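[Discussion] Sanity-checking designs against the backbone

I'm trying to build intuition for which residues belong where. Below is a structure token string of 391 positions. I'd appreciate it if someone posts a full sequence so I can compare it with mine line by line.
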């Protein structure tokens, strides 16, 4: 690989893989180093709002993703206790026309497979699995990245290094971050399965005391993805653990029968503790930057962590494509993203409080949402879903 156009990416999650593709479109070569021996996405489904699908379309992935994705007609916000609708936020055609790109839900494995296949076809991307980045050194030609694989330590050369290594980012620490992500006192349980009850093509959002439930169709509508988030003190930093169905059922005991039936359906759950960071990232003059959860982890109450990683990838590639000065391009990327990702992080954090209200405050929330109506509620997210990259 020619060294002068090669960019090294640490991490092959949604952010790293999208960045690799976006960089090739901007004329670069990418070496993606992934510590895991196999590409595997944690969790079952992901919502891809129009700000994310627009980027994926621009990268030419629309035709491959379309048969695997579902475009839900609405977000159905439900009073968890009564099972009655609070408001329906129109998606489907309304969202596609309003934002010029669809709102999709998809199985994570399907999204990852499309990204991985497209990368495998590109002569400009090398993916090295089982290779964990440990450190880097900056010099006049760029950056030397030190990574450990089955054969021991190896060096990788590039003009820049992108840390797409997730919430527990090693590169963030190497860039001077001293604080760890903080526990949000919430745990998420996710699973996917077959159900006849929830055939409707909607994203369901059930709100209740200290807990909420999200479900949507995946696998072209053949399966349903369920995410249950509860206020909780269990936290094991890092990785997911098997969840107990009985444990979750107890937390949703006050929900309507339909929601309880959904919780009772799968016998296997995957659970993980949710962590957050305040906005901001370590400052550096090095040709190194961060994208996705490494840069700005986001609580999953706005369904935007993956979307922001996808946006990051597009903006980063565009900045690098427009400016010969790599360090300056990376700083432009960081400046461009700062306000928007901080707003999304704040909004997600607010929702973590709003979603779990009960009693009089829950009543006020439900009344306000109902009075606002679905169309107006959608309009409130124009800043988020209507995002377009400056060309
Ligand atoms: C319950 C839940 C629901 C969610 N729902 C949505 C949703 O609907 N929509 C949405 O947009 N987002 C959602 N998110 C957020 C989304 O999943 C994440 O924001 C997104 O996956 C982050 O992608 P990433 O590539 O930045 O990081 P990751 O997916 O964490 O990928 C990081 C990769 O880097 C690798 N790695 C780590 N360290 C190293 C190293 N030193 N060297 C090499 N490789 C390394 C890891 O193995 C991993 O493969 C949700 C999150 C949760 C928890």
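Best answer:
Here's mine. Compare freely.
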């Amino acid at each position: 690989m020619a060294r002068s156009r090669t960019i090294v990416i640490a991490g092959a999650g949604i952010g790293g893989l999208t960045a690799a593709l976006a960089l090739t479109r901007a004329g670069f070569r990418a070496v993606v180093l992934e510590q895991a021996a196999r590409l595997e996405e944690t969790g079952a489904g992901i919502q891809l709002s129009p700000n994310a699908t627009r980027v994926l379309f621009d990268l030419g992935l629309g035709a491959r993703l379309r048969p695997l994705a579902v475009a839900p007609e609405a977000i159905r916000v439900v009073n968890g206790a009564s099972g009655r609708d609070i408001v329906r936020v129109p998606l489907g055609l309304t969202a596609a026309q309003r934002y010029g790109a669809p709102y999709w839900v998809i199985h994570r494995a399907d999204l990852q497979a499309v990204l991985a296949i497209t990368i495998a076809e590109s002569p400009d991307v090398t993916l090295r699995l089982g290779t964990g980045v440990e450190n880097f050194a900056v010099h006049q030609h760029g950056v030397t990245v030190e990574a450990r694989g089955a054969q021991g330590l190896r060096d990788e050369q590039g003009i820049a290094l992108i840390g797409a290594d997730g919430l527990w980012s090693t590169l963030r620490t190497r860039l001077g971050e001293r604080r760890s992500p903080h526990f949000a006192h919430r745990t998420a349980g996710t699973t996917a399965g077959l159900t006849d009850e929830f055939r409707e093509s909607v994203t369901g959002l059930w709100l209740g005391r200290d807990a909420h439930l999200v479900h949507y169709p995946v696998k072209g509508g053949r399966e349903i993805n369920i995410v249950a988030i509860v206020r909780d003190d269990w936290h094991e930093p890092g990785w997911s653990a098997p969840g107990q169905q009985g444990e979750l059922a107890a937390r949703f005991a006050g929900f309507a029968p339909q929601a309880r039936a959904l919780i009772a359906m799968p016998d296997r759950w995957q659970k993980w503790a949710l962590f957050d960071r305040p906005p901001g990232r370590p400052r550096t003059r090095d040709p190194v930057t961060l994208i996705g959860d490494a840069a700005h982890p986001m609580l999953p109450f706005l369904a935007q962590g993956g979307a922001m990683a996808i946006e990051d990838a597009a903006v980063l590639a565009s900045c690098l494509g427009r400016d010969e000065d790599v360090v300056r391009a990376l700083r432009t990327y960081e400046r461009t993203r700062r306000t928007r990702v901080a707003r999304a992080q704040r909004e997600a954090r607010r929702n973590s409080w709003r979603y779990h209200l009960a009693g009089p405050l829950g009543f006020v929330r439900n009344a306000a949402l109902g009075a606002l109506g679905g169309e107006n509620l959608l309009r409130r997210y124009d800043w988020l879903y209507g995002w377009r990259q400056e060309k």
